[in-house]
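With this grant's support, we have settled on a layout for protein records. A representative record follows, to show the layout.
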Amino acid sequence: MKKTLLTLLLCVVLATAGQAFGAVHTTLLQPGAHDLVATRLVPASVAPRPAYNTNHDPVSFSWTLKADQKIELGVRPVTRVSREYWQRVTAGQLAKGISVPVVTPGAVLRINPMGKAAAAKAQDINLSQLEIITGSQRHLDMNAATETIAREADLDQAGFAFPKGTMAFRLKPELGTGTFTIRAQGLKEAAATPYLVSVVEPHSPVVLAVTAHGQAILPGSAFTASVQLENGTQPIQVTRVSAAVISPDGHITPVQVRKTANGTLVASYQPQRLDPNAVGMWEMKISTEGTLKGQTVLRDIRTAFAYSLPTARLTGDVAIDTVPGGGIVAHLGIESSAEGRYEVRGILYGTAANGTLQPMGIADTAAWLPDGVNSLALTFGPRIIKRAGFHAPYEVRGLRLMDQSRMSVLRQQARGFVIPGLGHSQPAPKSPRLR
């Protein structure tokens, strides 16, 4: 019954939108493997309240593009690299000495209390307390072992916001590589006081490379990242790897890292939460360990992704028509479960003289929509359509649906829909194709 009612409403909405000129009806192309598509809508009762752009005024505009302009369509992989790692230790462990593996000379270390409570109680570590022991068991004080030392005031002046009691220093490059021991002798902090020790090797060819396949996900989709430890262009065998995600409200969930058939390490996580507190930026932390020429390699990285609860989706139906002056308008059916300000954007490609599809222009539209079945119109103006050297068929690519009032991406589709020559009408589909 519900689907039948939705079908009728869609027919009414799109028929009304295109009745003035006898619209051509078509449907969206099938989404690609890496496109972002909502499989279901969340009820208004669990959706976040509109808190960002709540303007009710509709807007619609378009602009031309150069035919040779390079455009990234769809969801593209993003690779980040790390030359650092972190250790969580206690004051008791610092007093006894902690191991710090270094594979490239000149590592930079930072030591700071963790958390507001720890920072409030922590006392500055006296430089005379610190001792650095090299891999060859040379015991050195800070003057002999370090090249640069920065205390809390120095870091503040440089614009870095670190907790009270933070200090940073650079090991002298001539000390080489290996496993160093950092010891804070006579540290008077409570033994359980937590500290974070960060080790950065800024000029190291040894990196942890993480490639994320998409930066935005919806319920039913997963954030996936491939993991590679590298020395320049050569892979390093990973002997230990772990991963976890941290939600916007601070929940930490371990993530399984699996090895694919070709040996690639992959961390994948699919959020199951459907509450407003889960919406926003999530973080995935990945820690690795390997061995390079007999030396221990440690690398950590953090990468982020946006998680949204879909309050609207494109129904799949499109009514295409002409507008006075020679432009083209495409009315896209939208089903929404909660009112909000929704935006649709698309890039029009036209057939060039050589038969290839090339970019002509972009159209963008946004309006406040109630819950239910509605439509938004992408209008490609005459300046775009009447450009010399282009003709039908056209294709709208880079199709995006966004919820401006909740700052969320609800659909990303590399290939959206085809616009045939408007002189050759096609019959409207008997029922909408819902996705």
Q: What stands out?
A: The mean pLDDT is 86. The longest helix spans residues 2-18.
